[in-house]
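Reopening closed ticket. The problem is back. First fold of the pair:
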Amino acid sequence: MGLDQLVRWSGQGRLTITPRTQRRIWSQVNHFIDWCVYEGELDVNPFRSVRFDPKVRPAPYAVPTDEEVMQLLRRNDPVLQPVLLTCLLTGMRAGEAVGLLRHDLVNKGNLGWFIHIRPNEVRLLKTDAAERLVPMHSRLAEVFDKLPSDGPLFPKLTVDLVTKRFTRLRRLVQLDRLVFHSTRKWFITQCERTGVPEHWTATLVGHKSARSENGITYGIYSAGISDQQKRSIVDQIRLPI
């Protein structure tokens, strides 16, 4: 179909995309055409005159309750369970978890094993702040022992597969309000409930702007929290089973 035909065809249905998705598309088209201008393929970006008026409302991910976490884990999905536990107990994003390699596990002697989340041949990271060392929770030791001894820890998993598998799982337990990213929210919530300062948690989960209570940006003024402090935080996290 041509553009005019597509516009007419789309008007025949009742399904629409959200303003958030519309804005994302609008932004990506602008970036692409700006690149065309930069490369000399176009003189100007004609799409700049297109206005985006719909108001985008924030839609934060739901935080699972302890009972909901128990429902998910009780299913013991053979494909999803290892990466589900990994993200619940480290606060990792799905892409960070499925991109882990065996040599990303680092032994720090008395402090135990740490997980080095960094760019590798399997995946890149969302931001520079996303590169970090996270202590391996004691519950994950037996999980990782069963994973490949070399190369990718989750060789058959992709973010797309994890997302679709989680969608299937949440429907089985009737928890449609959750997405896989909710595991990260659960980890952050557990840190908050044990009294961990917000800027410490931000360091663990790789948030770009970690600030203290008085607004100091720690990325500028601090070398960050120690491995011992990181270990003490993660050791306080308990699965609700």
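Second fold of the pair, where the issue appears:
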Amino acid sequence: MNLRRILPGLCAFALTLHAAADERITRIENGLREPVAVRGAPARTMRLLDRMRDLHVPGVSIAFIDHGRIAWTRAYGVADVDSGRPVTPATLFQVASISKSVAAVATVKSRIDLDADVSRRLPDSALTARHPVTVRALLSHTAGVSDEDLAGYPATAACPTLQQELARAEVKWEPGSRYAYSSLGYGVLQQVLADTTGRPFDALARDTVFAPLGMRDSLFASTLPAALAPRAAKGHALDGTPIAGGWHCYPEEAAAGLWSTAPDLARFAIALQDRRYAFLTRQQIDALLTPVRDDYGLGFELGHAGREPVFHHSGSNAGYKAQLWAYTRTGQGAVILTNGDYGATLIAELMRAIATEYGWEDWRPIERTAVPANTALFDRYTGSYAVSNVVLRVERRGDVLTLAGPPLGPEPVELIPAGDADFFMREKDATLHFDTDADGRVDTLTFVDGRPRPGRRIDPAQVSR
């Protein structure tokens, strides 16, 4: 075999593959897509850097998985706006509820009994007397534990202990009867693991997950140790300003306290994609990735639109938004980490660009049909409406109606007519219906965003109070 002849060919082949990957990445960077498309209209695309600016998301880190390996990584923007430190693939992010997926794998790897009764960790209840709370129920959000959101605590303030936080936990529904997402339930799980194994939870995760998978840049911590702060992205609020202290403290580490990088989380996903990998047995993977209720397994979300089986989890902490998405059969997937509170919008736009480039059935825009606008009715719709705990503002700009408010991003969005009193928008999978009384007056509306949310007209003076 003549290596002098073979090596140049191999180098040329590698360069070709690298150039092809660069071309795909460029198309993704310039091909971000909105969640809704107007049927028959040309597809609208956006540039990543423009959307980072528009949404006040300072930094993004991406790792793409192909054929069960990390095919490419990219990092954009800055870790914090004050210093201008650039994001790199090695930048640490708080990855929020993706913590639950890693905690679930650490639980399975610790080999504790998933069906053990752990009801004594919770306040006495007639519900648990009839139906005990198990580790499996905590992992699958079917334990009936209260589902309060975890807002965290600013790093500049004192951080409660896990035991203090768990004083709020109670069983509100019959265990096993329903799916009810509960971060507090994962706090209970964290305490169960520490008590059962006799080891701190962070050390257990390090030895069962991080070390075997080479996840050298991952750790569970309620707040980041000072020595690692120079490597971390700081969280940023909706307006792009840094969060006080850089991030929030989360005593429920198993629920929200994981710090990691996009490449490390890609390694974690790959370990679950490859059933030949010695890290997990087939039985352990099946336990983790089999739905218990409402398309949730043990620490993983499993519901999706396409035919290829997938496991995934999103994350939302103060100032940070994250997504892990991986296909079990094709060996493809993506991890996207951001350090801005509008990061979820940006992640979804990026995922649609990735899905378009790689031919995924998931993350495709929804098509809706527009009709000619009845502009004579527009003036009766304008005004401010209280919807749930936010205010939505409807304004007229010539022959266009716009909608503004916290669920939609920092800028008003165009309302596209689907009927005289019905509208949709490209920027969010949501619809709006205005209710007209017998006198032609509009005082109420229905904003459908996953579920119908009634709204009532309010005096503009109330908005500023």
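Update: turned out to be a display glitch only; the data is intact. The chain is about 30% helix and 25% strand. The mean pLDDT is 93. Please close again.
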